[in-house]
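WARN no homologs supplied; continuing
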Amino acid sequence: MHKIKTKKNFIFIGFPVLFILGIGLILLWYGVHFAKTPCDLSANGKVFFIKPGQNLAIISEELLHKKLICNKSLFVLMTRFKRDSGKIQAGEYLLSASMSPEKMLDIFVQGKVRLHKIVIPEGLNINEIAALVEKAGFGSKEHFVMLARNKKFVRSMGIKGGSFEGYLFPETYFFPKNISQKDIIIQMVKQFNRVFTLKWRKRAENLGFSVNQIVTLASIIEKETGKASERPIIASVFYNRLKRHMRLESDPTVIYGIKNFNGDLTKKDLETPTPYNTYKIKGLPPGPITNPGKMSLKAALFPAHTDYLFFVSKNNSTHKFSKNLREHDRAVRKYQLRK
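OK structure emitted
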């Protein structure tokens, strides 16, 4: 009698356990299916924002509202099961319902935010770069200029000059929408440091120049060059003039020293003393006049070996180079005065 009773108890207890176990397996299968199955394979991408401090319930509600997922409760359960609810990062994301909920969660946890492209061409100064930064939606031009000329900030990045002029490396960058202008500047300077290697720093030292002087020279080469292949030749002209203690007489340096330049360089401008007027001062100006690219920096470090002391524009992006004043005057009459 005792054995029969035990068997009945086993049967009675076994059915609920098996039932609950079966339900659990079904729910587990459904949860795994939800995690790995996109809501709409034909869907297009959508911008999705997660604000700092936004909780999981609100995030899942917004995902459902934007039709990126098909079940907000299962998204919450999936996230908690993976123990990722506290790892979701704020930011701007580009998502699609063609992604699985599991992939979306992975994007949130890894902080793979949407990046915005900004192209910084060679030869722009701080004000011109600031205008591009503002146009790309990364804050005001005025604030960028203020940061780029903040001497304490400049010194903290190991730069000897009075501003970041010359060190905002021209490149194609990809930034998240919420990046600060300070971080944008830091990334540009870091890119400069990647390009201007230790080997180049030693080369500058061997030439008898500081890094800032090389960047200053490269910035002038950048503004004077129309054709890339001429950069080392133009560099040689400036080196030859510096060795002979001749003034550089570079128009772009004069322009940089004129506040609110109107685009018309006059004789009066050339005769007006400023720290950047290389018709009046000897040697290099006090700092860079633009942000040079890699080829201009390289030309400043490795100039061509020539006897040229002068050059004049031929009005076709190239120059006529001369070894003496007589040749130069003849070139000016041919290419400039005749025009």
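The CA atoms of residues 49 and 92 lie 5 Å apart.
OK
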